Amino acid sequence: MSKLQSEVLREAISQINTEATTKKRKFTETVELQIGLKNYDPQKDKRFSGSVKLPHIPRPKMKVCMLGDAQHVEEAQKIGLEYMDVEGLKKLNKNKKLVKKLAKKFHAFLASEAVIKQIPRLLGPGLNKA
């Protein structure tokens, strides 16, 4: 394995960015970066974890819906997150049009542990196909 100069890395990243703007794709592309550490034995040393604060919000307009029990619905309501309880899910009654409309309205769903097992039974395969 060889060392990589920071200038070469910056040049490669800028080239990726320019090609991403000129060649429009119909899917989200990912870039993977692997870093090897010297004098680090993963068997002996514990794996480390950390977080990186991004300079901007990746999806500022991301819409999330909480599918939850009473406790999680209350928490979602406090922080201004849209939510649906089990009764609301039962009202959809596997109606494909309503489930598809719900799926298209949000980018992501969070579900309580108690509710997550009931979702396929309550909604059917509608969330997968939207």
UniProtKB/TrEMBL annotation:
Single GO MF descriptor: RNA binding
Keyword set, alphabetical order: Ribonucleoprotein, Ribosomal protein
Signal sequence residues: none
Entry's Gene Ontology cellular component terms: ribonucleoprotein complex; ribosome
The keyword Ribonucleoprotein appears for this protein: yes
Protein's UniProt name: 60S ribosomal protein L10a
Ribonucleoprotein keyword on record: yes
Organism: Papaver nudicaule (Iceland poppy)
Similarity comment text for this entry: Belongs to the universal ribosomal protein uL1 family.
